[in-house]
Inverse folding.
């Protein structure tokens, strides 16, 4: 559209044409990098297994794989949520004892990717699961932002458990999801 608009204006074309060519080059580089990431994820069995979970794409799967590295480091899968920084921060001193926002310890990138995966699960994924039903009920009670953080934490725990057990994500019907979660 911009190229069409500058055809009749040579003075403007001098300034805009290099910007358009730079934008096209950047878009090409992004497409190449996307293809490389998809190829990496496709060639890694563990990343493919992670991508069976709703909201988890190739970038999140590879980031989780690289950040956690060895699932045996964690005695319990629940510890992964704390490692990533998706648990509540506490302050206790004398008479004061409050629970605040998330601790934000650990890998910021993985925390962001898990939060985005939770957002996709709660807002975009049409297929129902017990995890989605639980997240929707939590969102009604506490708000969507808190629900996304809680679902992101639960996704981290589920991905770790999937890695340990060597299983894929377990889907459920909408009726079952609404009853069990």
């Amino acid at each position: 559209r911009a190229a069409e608009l500058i055809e009749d204006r040579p003075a403007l074309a001098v300034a805009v044409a290099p910007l358009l060519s730079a934008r096209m080059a950047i878009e090409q580089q992004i497409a190449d990098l996307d293809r490389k990431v998809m190829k990496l994820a496709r060639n890694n069995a563990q990343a493919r297994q992670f991508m069976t979970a709703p909201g988890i794409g190739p970038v999140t799967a590879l980031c989780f794989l690289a950040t956690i590295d060895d699932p045996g480091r964690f005695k319990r899968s629940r510890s992964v949520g704390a490692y990533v920084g998706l648990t509540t921060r506490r302050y206790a001193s004398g008479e004061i004892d409050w629970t605040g926002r998330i601790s934000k310890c650990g890998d910021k990138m993985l925390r962001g990717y898990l939060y985005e995966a939770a957002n996709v699960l709660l807002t975009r994924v049409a297929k129902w699961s017990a995890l989605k039903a639980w997240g929707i009920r939590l969102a009604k009670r506490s708000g969507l932002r808190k629900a996304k953080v809680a679902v992101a934490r639960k996704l981290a725990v589920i991905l770790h458990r999937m890695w340990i057990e060597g299983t894929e994500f377990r889907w459920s019907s909408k009726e079952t999801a609404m009853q069990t979660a």
Q: What stands out?
A: The chain has two domains: 1-43, 45-180. The two ends are 49 Å apart (CA to CA).
